[in-house]
Specification:
single chain; 8-stranded mixed β-sheet; 9 helices; globular; binds NADPH dihydro-nicotinamide-adenine-dinucleotide phosphate
């Protein structure tokens, strides 16, 4: 039978390119979890995806109710769930003020981490009950949250501190809107959320890999400088960033190539190792990459897990 992969944020960029790459193999049906149904269906059509190769299901990660409803709706499709890809993200580098999810969490961490945390926790039992030979839960990470790299050292650096802001609810009322308790900084909030993504993947691995047989993985697909992720950046940045990445850092990767990389992590029979953060070298060969000290801190991962559970109503 075909495999079924859920991809969040499949209406543009990496998520769309991955959906397309999987659909084209004829071996996958993609459930596109998207907040804008019309945009997603137009994007799938423009990408040339066969209409039988995907199903769009509404998902707004900025609302925990929407996440729960998405899980119900997906179950009603009565398709097995073989792979889940947590890909959607928001990045607000120029925001002066924080914005909030429906549950009153700062938006970047609320969408990129907390929404996905609830989604992944809810769908774990579905993955477990699938009879697919290689079941996977993939959380897209980033080099920018990784302070052991050059790109991860561009200020403001990711730093979760002692998680006091998160423990306080990240709402700017009783607590800071930043995980470490500091002042709002949109670029840092994004990087922090990506560290959360990488810590969460490893904590899933420690808690559930043996018991469920599910492979947990994260990846840095390369710098896809052309995606909508940079839509809120100043125009000059958007103009110069792609050539800068292409010719200066040479970290640039096209949406198509990045989509193939993520599709590999979804389906390649050789990438079954769990607890791994994949990257690709210049020749586009995948390798197991090292995470920064903070992004591989097991105590922090456990603490993050426990606080996140409370915030999303699982504990
Ligand atoms: P895009 O902005 O193109 O894609 C992000 C997707 O997330 C869009 O489909 C967007 O939906 C969706 N999304 C945003 N908010 C929500 C929400 N509240 N609920 C549901 N979906 C939402 O960016 P990329 O493709 O670049 O980013 C994809 C992933 O890749 C992210 O995890 C990012 O961190 C990661 N990444 C990107 C890199 C890059 O260089 N671009 C580098 C490293 C990692 P909509 O279409 O409706 O806006």
């Amino acid at each position: 039978r075909k495999g079924t992969a859920i991809i969040t944020g499949a209406s543009s960029g990496l998520g769309l390119a991955t959906a397309k790459a999987l659909a084209e193999t004829g071996k996958w049906h993609v459930i596109m979890g998207c907040r804008d149904f019309l945009k997603a269906s137009r994007a799938a059509k423009a990408a040339g995806m066969d209409k039988d190769s995907f199903t769009i299901v509404h998902l707004d990660l900025a609302s925990l109710d929407s996440v729960r409803q998405f899980v119900k709706n997906v179950r009603q499709l009565e398709m097995p769930i073989d792979v889940v890809v947590c890909n959607a993200a928001v990045y607000q580098p120029t925001a002066k003020e924080p914005s909030y999810t429906a549950d009153c969490f700062e938006m970047s961490v609320g969408v990129n981490h907390l929404g996905h945390f609830l989604l992944a926790r809810e769908l774990l039992s579905d993955l477990q009950s699938s009879d697919y030979p290689s079941k996977r839960l993939i959380i897209v990470g980033s080099i920018t949250g990784n302070t052991n790299t050059l790109a991860g050292n561009v200020p403001p650096k990711a730093n979760l501190g002692d998680l006091r802001g998160l423990a306080g609810g990240l709402n700017g009322i009783g607590s800071s809107v930043m995980i470490d308790g500091g002042e709002f900084d949109g670029a840092k909030a994004y990087k922090d959320s990506k560290v959360c993504n990488m810590l969460t993947m490893q904590e899933f691995h420690r808690r559930y890999h043996e018991e469920t047989g599910v492979t947990f993985a994260s990846l840095y697909p390369g710098c896809i400088a052309t995606t909508g992720l940079f839509r809120e950046h100043i125009p000059l940045f958007r103009l110069l960033f792609p050539p800068f990445q292409k010719y200066i850092t040479k970290g640039y990767v096209s949406e198509e190539e990045a989509g193939k990389r993520l599709a590999q992590v979804v389906s390649d029979p050789s990438l079954t190792k769990s607890g791994v953060y994949w990257s690709w070298n210049k020749n586009s060969a995948s390798f197991e990459n090292q995470l920064s000290e903070e992004a591989s801190d097991a105590d922090k991962a456990k603490k993050l897990w426990e606080i996140s559970e409370k915030l999303v109503g699982l504990a």
